[in-house]
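quick one before i forget lol
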Amino acid sequence: MSTETAQGNDESGTVEVTEAAADEALSLLKSEGLDEGVAGLRLFVQQGGCAGLSYGMRFDDAPEEDDTITEHNGLRVFVDPASQNYIEGSVVDYESGLQAEGFHVENPNVVSECGCGESFRT
């Protein structure tokens, strides 16, 4: 794993991505026609949900100037400074099963979640 920021290298508080999640995200990124050497998965926190905060994910063509950038199994992950405080130490995984399929964030900073697991509070 490598980590870059606009201010230099900083390994503290980074987000981890499992191999399954990185493989799925890279497959989706390629299907969107994005360059995996420059583009990446943006992980962010936004206001919303019954517990107050929710996760967001999208592909970005390139990182913003002040993003923390990490690489996991070939996948670049971008996190903005405001979101970093809420999700540092989290693990992004991809689960596929009979009941549900998708990305899941395991966040050690969460003190409570809503019943459906879509929002949280730190």
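fyi Residues 2-121 form a domain with the Hypothetical Protein Aq_1857; Chain: A; fold (CATH 2.60.300.12).
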